[in-house]
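Field: COMPLEX_INPUT
Field: COMPONENT_COUNT = three
Field: RESIDUE_TOTAL = 884
Field: MODE = joint
Values follow.
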Amino acid sequence: MATILFLEQCLNGLQLGIMLFLMAAGLTLIFGVMGLINLAHGSLYMIGAFACAAVASWTGSFILGLVASVVCAAVAGALIEVGVMRRLYQRDHLDQVLATFALILISSEAMRWLFGSYPLYLDVPEVFYGATNLFGVLQYSRYRLFIIVVGLLTAIGIYLLINKTRIGMRIRAGASDRQMTAALGINISLIFTLVFALGAALAGFAGALVGSIQSVDIGMGEPVLILAFVVVVIGGIGSIRGALVGAIIVGMVDTLGRGYLPQLLQLVLDPVFANTLGAALASIAIYVLMIIVLIFKPQGLFPAHG
Amino acid sequence: MSSPVIEITNLSKSFGAIQATQDLNLTLNFGEIHALIGPNGAGKSTLIKQITGHLQPDQGEITFLGQNITQLLPANRAKLGLAQTFQVSSLIMEYSCLDNLLLVVQARSGSSFSFFTAVRDDQILLAQAHNYLQQVGLSQRHHLLASALSHGERRQLEIAMALALEPKAFLLDEPMAGMDPAGVKHLIERLKEMRLQAPILLIEHDMAAVFALADRITVLDYGRIIATGSVESIRNNEQVQTAYLGVAP
Amino acid sequence: MGNYMSEKYLNRIMIALLIVLPWLAHWLDEPYYVSLATRVAILALAGVGLNLALGLGGMISFGHAAFFGIGGYVTGILASHALNYEPIFSGFISIPGTTQMLIIWPLAMLIAAIVAVFIGLLSLRTSGVYFIMITLAFAQMIYYFSISWPAYGGEDGLPIYMRNGFPGLNTLQPIQFFMICCTLLLIVLWGVSRLQNSRFGNALQALRQNETRVASIGINPLGIKLTAFVISATITALAGSLFADLNRFVSPTMFSWHTSGQIMIFVILGGLGRLYGPLAGASLFILCEAVLGGWTEYWQFFLGLLLLGVVLFARGGLIGLLTREQKNV
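Field: COMPLEX_OUTPUT
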């Protein structure tokens, strides 16, 4: 029984990790290629979720909703890149932080104005209702399984895109040497817009997928954004591989910490106190993890530049 | 004979597969100008950074006035009396010339942990700062921001900042770089005065200047010393001519 | 300079307005406006704290909410113990709570300083984006801890039933509490203006521009930066303590990253690195909130636009715009 529960927790951790990867991949690419720190990435996640909820309830099709989330987030991302971000590439990090913080205020309020303050709920297709049997022992939510599979496929897709295609090669070249890439006659501003739209699409997609587990509301992007930052910092800013490894680690530590820290502490402490302390510690576990990583590897686990 | 001011023993540093410093031994003696030459990428700047403490060597030891400084922070090495000028001018760009020097004089003359008295009201510090500016001929420009200075003036300001530390040794990283012939000539005279104050480890590409100034020359290539000795012996060394001066033997 | 006023002149006008307007409101019997001015003074104080690290020292701390919140929670915890007659610590000696501002402030600042030494030592090892992220992470850590630790209200926060006292004053009267906050702001502004021109300030501002150079003349960057970070944290904690007393309530929101972002906004709207920038910024912020907030519930949309505009087009902030003066270093 304990093993089954543990397995289930591991799958939940994996699911969280994969969602975080979809967020972190965009963040780390945008930082690696454009040198931009983008706080508004969480807003794109939110926009994706809202687009999915709106289109799904309008057409009755969850799949169309997912498509809409990707398209809307990508378009919003491209617009933001062309309208605002371009002016920020040459600026220092402080300006980038502030401008993207301003974008959060703007987009959150705009969504609140469009959709109201109440959360929306997204219904998944009937195929995903209930649980499915895994390995003959474990009943696991079909929808979460769907998220894991789709997320993994997307992760593989990104990996192939970045490492095996011509456009990916150009993106990597842009990440390692911007001026050189420009000198080679590659249209750098088009690459930037593409990377930004790609990152935005991934964030929007993640938002739509998670929106069906939780509710779709205004502030939903922010906790995820900060988790994704933790992932990026742990993995090494600019590294896709680091983002993947970091995401899985953070997903696992967070989920397993919440599941098991209180129980572990009960072995040595008074049960009530252990529960309180365990829950409190579990909520900060990933930050402790990040700080430990930075103490020993100040550039993250997979430093991208030098 | 007295012990050297700077003594480097068995210093090694590598970046991945590249050996930037290989088992290097070097001394800087009282009263001398010791020039360090070598082609680009020979490891001169890497060596300077290890002496100043901006890079940590993999192996070996650096002593300064008999004290092992290998583990010291850059600031503490400077406090002991190690002054450097940078290959690319490194100034406090939004500070005036005078403020750049005030900062150095302040650092040398006590703690920076004083929170209430205005630094610009300290007449003693001001007088000292003005004095060093005058020494390099920047008195008229004292109010200008460092960012507004010409290239030559920035190099002068760097020299003034090194002087203001009243150091026990100078590390000068290509001080002549980018200067016009008149400036170079002027700087050669200045270095001749500075050597009276403290020995100079001089990295320089301008061979005429090196031959005019140096007591000893050490030639670096691929992180190793390929020759060291008097100006004459280096001038005539075949290995040096192949590696550096590009003359076929 | 033309028709633009000098920064010094503008600063004096701001201070005069900050003192005169609340008294006017007081005489007109409009306590709401007095409390608005009190908020301006407190938030400006928090900004002055951050400005020391951010504007002078170039340390982009995205975690100053941690110190603001610590100031608030120390105040709330001490007061709640005192009002419930429960000692904070009972063992071989018993430590009671207190409702005396004069005891609460130094304690709040001391505890923030201790936390700031710890955070600073770890985060100043990094730079650039990593510094931004690690300061954010520390603040988030405290935020989530405050939510999930139930002893002092957890997610619901902790009420302070009676505003803490100050000898000889009736702090419950808005104008008197305002005068306390305003006086503290003026004292801190004076202190920071001295610090700016001191040896310490000289080294700190040089460090922001060229750390390698400053190290090479014998000033250890870490010591200077850490000290500035800690002083900055204590000022922000003092503001947090006053903020708790103003609202008579503390909650985890004080630790949230929105709070860090807002304190940063005060600094930037007014003008980065300008002594009175946070006062201008906090005034503008409260003005926006009061005017736009009365007009539309989506006022933060316009705040966002304003902030974006300032960052993209008016980097000197409000003071820079009004005076057309370059920041004097």
